[in-house]
User: What shape does this take?
Amino acid sequence: MPRDNLFGLTTPILQAPMAGTSTPHLAAAVSNAGGLGALGVGAASVADARTMIEQTRALTDKPFNVNVFCHRPAVHDAAREAAWCAYLAPLFGEWGAAPPTELAEIYTSFVGHAEATRMVLETRPAVVSFHFGLPDADQLAALRAAGLRTMATATSLAEARAIAAAGVDVIVAQGIEAGGHRGMFDPAAPDEALSTEALVRQLAGALDLPIVAAGGIMDGADVCAALGWGAVAAQLGTAFVLCPESAANAAYRARIRGGQAAETRLTAVISGRPARGIVNRLITHGEAEGAPPPAPYPMAYDAAKRLAAQDQAAFGAHWAGQQAARAREMPAADLMAVLRTEMAA
Assistant: This one.
């Protein structure tokens, strides 16, 4: 994999996949502007994921990335889930609703998922990326045989070594500043919580694979800094949320525009796995003294989404990085142009 021209890009910028926020129009706009656009399909059905890929291909002839979730299969814990639902009861009660009596596994892992694998092989996106871990060896071999390029998220050197050993082409080094779900393979494992700079420098010095820096990168100067740390490109997520092409709802956009964007927190309260978002009432309630542990991932997300359906501002999952207050509102193509100008300054 060439280090000086990752995936043939004219601009070393990747749009983070952002499941639920990325769209075909956003991905295509970034790819058409010389970067690598992305679709986060981990929260989509196989049929919906196929449609998203086909729609993106109709909007661009450039490469784009399709990101899948590779978490371990969910393990239901009836007692823990019941305790969590009971703890959320006062929040549901604010509009006269009862808390759910059971929680669903709303996201299915890509690992060993034959139908999802067939869909990816049939639609053939140029790049496939993995979050929360890696697919099994047979899936990786099939993707490789089909000529697809692969990337995977690492939050530590140990995860990066596992990615390299699996034959994945590119490592996305996700620092603690990043918004959204932390890509830890095992969310119960110790987390050094390395900054993006520290992680990129560590991985670039230890491994002979291209490294993409992710976390806290918002402008062209940040991209140049990441390249100086040893990254071949930078991945930006929160920077694209305010673009009109994203699927961010009105409450999400308002909170990034407002002063709340300065206060983000890494928490497992919303989904059951560590993720960074703008602090809201669900987070403060779930982290209050005496609160039980949240339901396991992704069952906790089922409860959170039911709350958000009633009040997005108070309970919505507004994923954002530590630099969210620096987000700029403009079409994605314009943002890419601004980033290039800033990189050249």
